[in-house]
Amino acid sequence: MARMWSRRAFLSTPVAAALAQQPTFESRRPAAGQRRFTSPAVEEAISSARRTIADPEISWLFENCFPNTLDTTVEYTEPNGRPDTFVLTGDIHAMWLRDSTAQVWPYLPLARRDEKLRKLLLGVVNRQTRCILIDPYANAFNAGPTGSEWAKDRTRMKPELHERKWEIDSLCYAVRLAHGYWKATGDTQAFDADWRQAAALIVQTFREQQRKSGPGPYRFQRVTAVPTDSLPNGGFGNPAKPCGLIQSGFRPSDDACIFPYLIPSNFFAAVSLDQLAEIHTTVTQDAAAAAACRDLAAEVRAALSRHATVKHPVHGDIYAFEVDAYGSCLLMDDCGIPGLVSMPYLGCVPATDPTYRNTRAFSFSESNPFYYKGTAGEGLGSPHSGLDMIWPMGIIARALTSDSEDEIRHCLATLKATHAGTGFMHEAFHRNDAAKFTRKWFAWANTLFGELILKTLDRHPRLLKG
Fold this sequence. Notes:
Elements: H1 13-20, H2 40-52, H3 56-65, H4 68-72, E1 74-77, E2 84-87, E3 95-96, H5 97-104, H6 115-134, E4 140-141, E5 161-163, H7 168-185, H8 193-208, E6 261-262, H9 263-284, H10 287-307, E7 309-312, E8 316-319, E9 322-323, E10 329-330, H11 354-363, E11 371-373, E12 378-380, E13 389-390, H12 392-400, H13 405-417, E14 428-430, E15 433-438, H14 443-459, H15 462-465
C-alpha cells in the first residue's frame, strides 16, 4: 500500500503558530514600481495558476516565489544594442553561472509570448558567454572589475571574479541555458563568434580536467577554518587515476570534492557536450567542433560505465557520488543540483533506469548520511549547511523526479509547512524547527518552487486543483 503523507506530522509548533497568525495571504512581492523587471507573460502565468490552485497557501507561495528572480535579482541593459543581463543569486551580490541559469530556466517556455522577456533571457546567455571568456574555471562573477572578498584566494583571481571554484556544472549550466533558449525561441543570434570561442573553451577545460598528462592549470587554496572551502595537495585536490572522467574541484554546493570525479556532474557534462554538438551541427555548421564534442561525450560515458556504479550491501547497484578510479568511492547524496536524485531532471539518466531507482532508494534512506528526518520535515541536506539542515531544493528535486502522486503530495505538504511564515523558500531549515533557516533571499530555490508548481499543474493537476 502506498504510504499516505500527513502535513500535520511535519509541521513544527513555531511554524504552526506563525501560520495560524496569518489567515490571509498578502503578497510578499515588491511593490510594482520597485520590481527590477516585469514580464506580462510571467504575470499571466501567475494569474492563470492562481485561478487553478485550490490551496490558498500554495497559491500564495507560488505568487511570491515564481517571479522572485525577475522581481529582485536581474539587472538588464543593452550596451551597443546587445542584450546583457546580470543575475544576482539573491543575498550575495554576484552572479553564479549555475544559479543564474537555474533562476531563469522556468521562464523559457514563456519567452515566445513576451519579446521583452526573450531579450532578458538572451542577455543572460550573452553575459554567461562573457564570463566564460574571462575565466572558464570561475564559478561566480562580479558585475564588473570590482574585486571581491575572495581576492586573496591562492588561485588566478581577476577583479571580474567573485569566486574561482572549479565546478564542472558551472559550464554545463551555461550550455544548458544557451541550448534551452535556442529550443524555446528558435533564436540563434546568441551563437556568435564570442559564443563559439566560449564553447571551445568549455571543451578545452573539460579536456584539461581529465588530467591525462598532468594536473593541468587549475589550483585553488583558501586561508580558512572551513576545510571544504579549500583543496588539498597544493590546491590540486586529492589524487585520481586518469580514466576519461573529468575532475571537479568543487561540488554544486561550492564544497570541495573528496574524490575528484564527481559522478552527477560527469553525467551532466556528457549531456552538455551532446547539446553543444547539436548546436554546432545545426546552427554554427562546424562539423569539427561537433565531432570533438561527441567524442568527448562518448569518452566520459564509457568511463562512467566503468567507474560510476558500485554495489551497496542494502540497495544493490547504485551510483556513487564521487570516485577516484583507484577503487575508492564516496556513498552519499547532496541536495545540490546536479546531485544523484536530480539527474533525471537534467536529462542525465532516465528516471526508470534500474541503477537510478536503487540510488534514489539509497538517497532517501538512513544509508545516506545527509538525509534527515525530524518533526519539521524530511529531506536531503548538504555538508555545506551543516548537520540536521534540510534543503527545500532537495525536496523540490525529489518531487520533480517522482512518478508517485503520494510522494509529490508529501513534498508539497513539507514545502508548505516549512517556509516559516515567510512565503519564500530558503536555502536550508532545521529538521526539527523550520523557523531556524538559512538565506531568506535565495532566488534559485524560489524560482525552482515555481517550476515545480507549473509542472505539477501540467502532469498531476488533481494534486493542486483539489
